[in-house]
């Protein structure tokens, strides 16, 4: 007989992706003979793998106290949810960007079904493990409860929330135990051609490299950048003026072969060239003279670095360049019209062969100074890219000053520089539309700001996903006083996450004001980590009757219909920005999520008299939507008046090809 399966907290569909189960299924598909009565026979598996099995007691690797537990934490599914907060969002109905409040470990688990293999670039600036850094005391038993402890929602039971002192033997161990599960989950979110950038300093850079070698594979290491900042005069031996950015890919073979950056100051020159060509038409000499004067007037600006491109022809701005170089091709280059050999200077070679030279002559790209002396024209618009260097220089003070001006107060001491992160985004996300950029240590929101800046610069529509712990701020703490008072001024709770959201709002406004023609997405949807909307069975042995009454309603009291919709969406593996449509069928509100992939009716009073009309309306709507996947239909269990109505609903839907019918 058709039935509607009731979802509870033990159902895999109410949890985040079960990574262990997925690994076991993959192993079973490859080596079915290694399984006996559903369990892995490791002796058989080792025999199947042969010499690939490492049997030695001593082997190369990174180990520390707590590593096994940290691995297990990454593999434990989450039963939490993300509650939508449209009132705290910007452009909720249209935006594709996300700002999520919560412990990033729990959030990364919850995002697995919806975003695994979809993220193009991850940038994080995790705690550097200095004395003031927060260490997330991950709780294996209940990570949502751990999150509530961190944010002061429940008693912390005396938990220490700051990092271990350097005198502690577990100084590095605790930091590595915090990072390992987060990096493991981050890897699974990356696309095959995705990359992760991790900012770090001397305290943990060596350990970060070893952890990432283990998780991503040493063969997927791309580079270790040096990020140079302001000079320090307070050091005793060496003034350390740099940090690091470690870059790994999920699969280096799939990453774009070449990364590039725009040369600084090129865009203003190209705009001026376009203006002069329009003004002077074919009079290239007059246009070139005006361009030379424009460069002289802009000596103090970055554009002046391109002053050699001061000549203009029909193609654009160009410079006359030497066509030879040490190590070039040595042969007798001939003038294509006179046949005369063009002499080659000692210890030099040509940058082209004879055929290429003849083509450049035909295209007007060769200037004959004399019949035996030539120069080649290099055009600015063809040489406006450069390979990213391994050293980036950007004084930290300038980023702090800009952020203080934007916010109206110095709410963050050491924010990352948005213009440098903008370069990282340009390098690693390329020109692909809808690329997702994630930062799960969002802090001041610099990464979101950088995404908006780069989208405005190149007109693309990258999406950002920010995750930030709502760590409390106290006005009694000297280091947090300004930030806490700022939250009071804007009428928001005293947390770092509120600062993150406000920075994104203000940076979006600033980007739009600076780029009035930019019509891209500058909004974001806010979600907050919480316990699941589905209640766990909580019996009271002293009052079983009251327990039964209290647990008759399967959903958490006070939660809204929208809260439940987004949990279903998340646990089914749909994008958190997927459209949700609503219509009334048989007097009941029905929602379609993801073009009919999920249809939900949480209405009460579904009696046997309305079942047929409601069921047929759902069937008709699904047919009109024509989803590419099988549709799941979910009802509120207490919404059915009785078991007859529930059974009839299942029967009608099943008869019309909708087999996956559930209740909450």
What this model shows, in words?
Helix content is 35%, strand content 18%. It has 20 helices and 26 strands. With 664 residues, the protein is α/β, with parallel strands linked by helices. Helix 4 (104-110) runs parallel beside helix 7, helix 7 runs parallel beside helix 8 and helix 9 (266-280) packs antiparallel against helix 10 (284-297). It starts with a strand and ends with a strand. The strands form six sheets. It has a ten-stranded mixed beta sheet with strand order 4-21-5-20-19-6-7-9-8-18, with helices on both faces. A six-stranded mixed beta sheet has the order 1-26-25-24-23-22, with helices on both faces. Strands 11-12-16-15 form a four-stranded antiparallel beta sheet. Residues 156-163, 537-541 and 543-552 have low confidence and may be disordered. The radius of gyration is 31 Å and the shape is globular. It folds into four domains: 7-60, no CATH class; 80-224 and 399-529, Rossmann fold; 266-386, no CATH class; 552-663, no CATH class.
């Amino acid at each position: 007989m058709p039935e509607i399966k009731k979802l509870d907290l033990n159902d895999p569909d109410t949890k985040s992706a079960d990574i262990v189960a997925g690994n076991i299924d993959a192993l079973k598909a490859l080596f079915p003979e290694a399984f006996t009565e559903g369990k892995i026979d490791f002796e058989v598996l080792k025999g199947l793998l042969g010499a690939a099995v490492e049997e030695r007691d001593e082997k190369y690797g990174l180990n520390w106290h707590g590593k096994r537990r940290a691995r297990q934490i990454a593999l434990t599914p989450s039963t939490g949810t993300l509650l939508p907060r449209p009132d705290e969002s910007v452009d909720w109905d249209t935006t594709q960007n996300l700002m999520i409040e919560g412990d990033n470990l729990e959030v990364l688990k919850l995002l697995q079904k919806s975003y695994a293999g979809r993220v193009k670039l991850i940038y994080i600036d995790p705690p550097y493990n200095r004395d003031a850094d927060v260490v997330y005391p991950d709780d294996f038993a209940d990570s949502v409860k751990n999150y509530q402890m961190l944010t002061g929602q429940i008693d912390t039971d005396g938990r220490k929330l700051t990092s271990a002192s350097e005198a502690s033997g577990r100084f590095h161990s605790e930091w590595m135990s915090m990072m390992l599960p987060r990096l493991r989950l981050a890897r699974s979110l990356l696309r095959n051609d995705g990359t992760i950038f991790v900012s770090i300093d001397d305290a943990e850079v060596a350990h970060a490299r070893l952890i990432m070698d283990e998780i991503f594979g040493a063969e997927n290491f791309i580079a270790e950048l040096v990020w140079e900042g302001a000079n320090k005069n307070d050091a005793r031996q060496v003034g350390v003026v740099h940090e690091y950015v470690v870059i790994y890919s999920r699969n280096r073979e799939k990453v774009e072969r070449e990364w590039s950056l725009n040369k600084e100051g090129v865009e203003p020159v190209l705009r001026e060239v376009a203006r002069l060509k329009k003004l002077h038409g074919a009079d290239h000499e007059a246009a070139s003279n005006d361009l030379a004067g424009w460069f002289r007037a802009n000596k103090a600006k970055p554009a002046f670095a391109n002053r050699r491109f001061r000549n203009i022809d029909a193609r654009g701005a160009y410079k006359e360049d030497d066509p030879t170089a040490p190590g070039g091709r040595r042969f007798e280059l001939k003038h294509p019209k006179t046949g005369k050999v063009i002499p080659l200077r000692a210890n030099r070679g040509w940058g082209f062969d004879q055929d290429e030279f003849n083509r450049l002559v035909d295209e007007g790209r060769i200037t004959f100074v004399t019949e035996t002396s030539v120069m080649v024209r290099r055009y600015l618009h063809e040489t406006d890219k450069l390979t990213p260097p391994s050293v980036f220089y950007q004084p930290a003070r300038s980023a702090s000053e800009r952020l203080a001006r934007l916010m109206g107060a110095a709410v963050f001491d050491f924010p990352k520089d948005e213009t440098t992160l903008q370069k990282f985004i340009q390098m690693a996300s390329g020109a692909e539309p809808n690329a997702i950029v994630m930062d799960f240590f969002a802090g001041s929101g610099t990464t979101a700001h950088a995404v908006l800046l780069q989208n405005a610069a190149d007109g693309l529509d990258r999406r950002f996903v920010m995750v930030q712990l709502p760590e409390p701020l106290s006005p009694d703490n000297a280091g947090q006083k300004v930030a806490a008072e700022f939250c009071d001024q804007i009428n928001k709770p005293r947390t770092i996450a509120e600062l993150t959201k406000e920075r994104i709002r203000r940076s979006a406004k600033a980007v739009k004001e600076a780029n009035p023609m930019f019509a891209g997405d500058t909004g974001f949807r806010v979600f907050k980590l919480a316990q699941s909307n589905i209640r766990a069975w909580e019996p009271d042995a002293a009052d079983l009757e009251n327990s039964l009454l209290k647990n008759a309603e399967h959903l958490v009291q006070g939660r809204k219909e929208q809260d439940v919709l987004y949990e279903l969406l998340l646990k089914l593996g749909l994008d958190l920005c997927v459209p949700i449509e609503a219509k009334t069928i048989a007097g009941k509100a029905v929602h379609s999520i993801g073009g009919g992939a999920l249809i939900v009716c949480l209405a009460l009073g579904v009696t046997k008299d309305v079942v047929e009309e409601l069921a047929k309306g759902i069937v008709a709507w699904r047919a009109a939507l024509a989803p590419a996947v099988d549709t799941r239909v979910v009802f509120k269990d207490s919404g059915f008046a009785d078991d007859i109505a529930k059974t009839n609903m299942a029967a009608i839907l099943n008869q019309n090809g909708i087999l996956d019918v559930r209740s909450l």
